[in-house]
């Protein structure tokens, strides 16, 4: 942890202004929504590049919420700085994902136990093989227990973190055959950063569209109505 490097090039907060647990969303307006609807006395700590961040309390516990942008390079930067320069111990991503399984529908939750990827993000570690990015088991277990208690429909398993949104050849059938539940764009980098930095991480995704059946939601619905995953994330604070 290098406190002398705060503020960082991408986060305008001073050391101590960010809680040890941060709940993150790709869309900074979703972070703002969480601050306004879940936190007591939220204080904004970041607006660099419009990537909003707030710290407040939830049921008496200090917690921060922040955007992380789209894609592994973006979440990779923000989570690296949070883990390494701000003393953050736990990062929970709440976001959207596209289902590639017929029994996983719009509005359902995915607790990402692991993350496959077509990214080259892990090459930086120069490992003599293939690294398997996985979530913290305690967070996975806690999220599943919350879903059971609240009656939320969910599945636990692998997601695909893809570098490409508009893919020429998605090869979804190959990922389907391997039991991958859904496609998103960030989880693998989050889990790799957590592993390298000694932190804890989990991603909880809401199915926003179905790549096979064509079910979709609007951008406004994704921003303000996907609250079940937020309920689960805040239960882990």
UniProtKB/TrEMBL annotation:
Cellular component annotations (GO), alphabetically ordered: cytosol
Pfam family, one: PNP_UDP_1
Annotated Nucleoside phosphorylase domain residues: 22-234
GO terms, molecular function: purine-nucleoside phosphorylase activity; uridine phosphorylase activity
Catalytic reaction(s) noted: uridine + phosphate = alpha-D-ribose 1-phosphate + uracil
GO biological process, one term: uridine catabolic process
InterPro entries cross-referenced by the UniProt entry: DeoD-type, Nucleoside_phosphorylase_CS, Nucleoside_phosphorylase_d, Nucleoside_phosphorylase_sf
EC number: 2.4.2.3
Record keywords: Glycosyltransferase, Transferase
Enzyme class label: transferase
Chain segments annotated as transmembrane: none
Family as reported in the entry's similarity comment: Belongs to the PNP/UDP phosphorylase family.
HAMAP family named in the record: Pur_nucleosid_phosp
NCBIfam families for this protein: deoD (TIGR00107), PRK05819.1 (NF004489)
Protein name in the entry: Uridine phosphorylase
Lineage: Bacteria, environmental samples
């Amino acid at each position: 942890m290098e406190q002398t490097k705060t503020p960082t090039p991408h986060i305008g907060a001073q050391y101590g202004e960010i809680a040890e647990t941060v709940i993150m969303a790709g869309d900074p307006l979703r972070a703002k929504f969480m601050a306004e609807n879940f936190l007591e006395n939220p204080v904004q700590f970041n607006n660099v590049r419009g990537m909003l961040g707030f710290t407040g309390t939830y049921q008496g516990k200090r917690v921060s919420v922040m955007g992380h942008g789209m894609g592994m390079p973006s979440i990779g930067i923000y989570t690296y700085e949070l883990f390494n320069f701000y003393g953050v111990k736990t990062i929970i991503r709440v976001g959207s994902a596209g289902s590639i399984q017929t029994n996983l529908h719009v509005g359902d939750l995915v607790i990402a136990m692991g993350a496959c990827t077509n990214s080259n993000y892990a090459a930086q570690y120069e490992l003599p093989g293939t690294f398997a990015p996985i979530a913290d088991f305690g967070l996975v277990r806690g999220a599943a227990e919350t879903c059971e208690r609240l009656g939320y429909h969910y599945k636990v398993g692998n997601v695909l973190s893809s570098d490409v949104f508009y893919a020429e050849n998605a090869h979804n059938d190959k990922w389907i055959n391997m039991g991958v539940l859904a496609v998103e764009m960030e989880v693998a980098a989050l889990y790799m950063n957590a592993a390298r930095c000694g932190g804890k991480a989990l991603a909880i995704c809401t199915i926003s569209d179905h790549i096979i059946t064509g079910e979709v939601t609007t951008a406004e619905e994704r921003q303000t109505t996907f609250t079940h995953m937020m309920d689960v994330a805040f239960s882990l604070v």
